């Protein structure tokens, strides 16, 4: 039967009873990992991932892939990537965010059962803005990078709440990702708990690492659509997600390495912390002071006197 797997899991959808529950899903159709490269200044970032493919149909039940790929462009120098804006109720974050990569892999049921699950990956270049408290800091310093991550995710997720109940938990399951002999990254999960609660969250896996003194990368693996308790659906998605993360590595250029070495000269231990507790969410935006400012009503010129109205 294995010889017909090319047809059994061909990415074509025929509309059928939505109550049908497959006992197996597979994806993507072209499963062989391919080397991907992002150019970040004089540094290259590599990972292995399969080609993505749409799911075809004649009845509108198919799924398209709307991908963003940087190609051979220097991501730090090009500019003009799609801007990302936080839509939380928090204060201004002073982070410039640009999405430069996005891809989706579909997992289908056998015999034209159509798309059942998907894994979407999105990569964002984060840069400090004028007025940021990190404007004069160096993100290669491990403590500075950790504080920057806290600030970034506080603004992105910490202010989202229903009353006193947060919509998210994070970071969960923090670990250090050794991307090169010098630069390390952080790997952790964000739990969306507004619907299923802490015991049944939906999940986004995150990789983040500094790339210059003022820039860092955030890579999201969106798994929020999958039921984590359903092994048939969850297992193949996590297998693909983890295989991509495990393949990640950096080839650090001379200029970037020199920036890193400059920090190491004053910070001998450049390791990220092995454990990072959850951030204290929800955060509540401070209300502006409604008390009116005191006014000087002492007349300085009789001709300019105005009646005072409290």
Keywords:
about 300 residues; single chain; about 30% strand; alpha+beta; 7-stranded antiparallel beta sheet; about 15% helix
Range of strand content: 25-35%
Q: Order of strands side by side in the largest beta sheet? A: 5-6-7-13-12-11-10
Contiguous uncertain segments of 5+ residues: 295-310
Note the main sheet. Answer: 7 strands, antiparallel
Outline? globular
- Structural class by helix and strand composition: alpha+beta
Question: What is the typical, i.e. mean, pLDDT?
Answer: 89
Q: How much helix, percentage-wise, in residues?
A: 10-25%
Got a strand count?
14
What is the count of DSSP helices, taking H or I runs of 4+ residues? 5
Number of domains: 1
Distance between the termini: 86 Å
Order of helices and strands: HEEEEHEEEHEEEEEEHEH
**Backbone CA Rg:** 24 Å
Structural summary, described in words:
The chain has one domain (53-283). Helices cover 17% and strands 30% of the residues. It is built from 5 helices and 14 strands. It has helices spanning 5-8, 75-78, 142-158, 231-246, 254-264, and strands at residues 12-13, 34-40, 43-49, 56-57, 82-83, 95-108, 115-128, 161-162, 165-166, 168-178, 184-192, 202-210, 215-223, 249-251. The longest helix is centred in the middle third of the chain and has 17 residues, at 142-158. Residues 282-310 are annotated as: Disordered. Residues 284-310 have a biased composition (Basic and acidic residues).
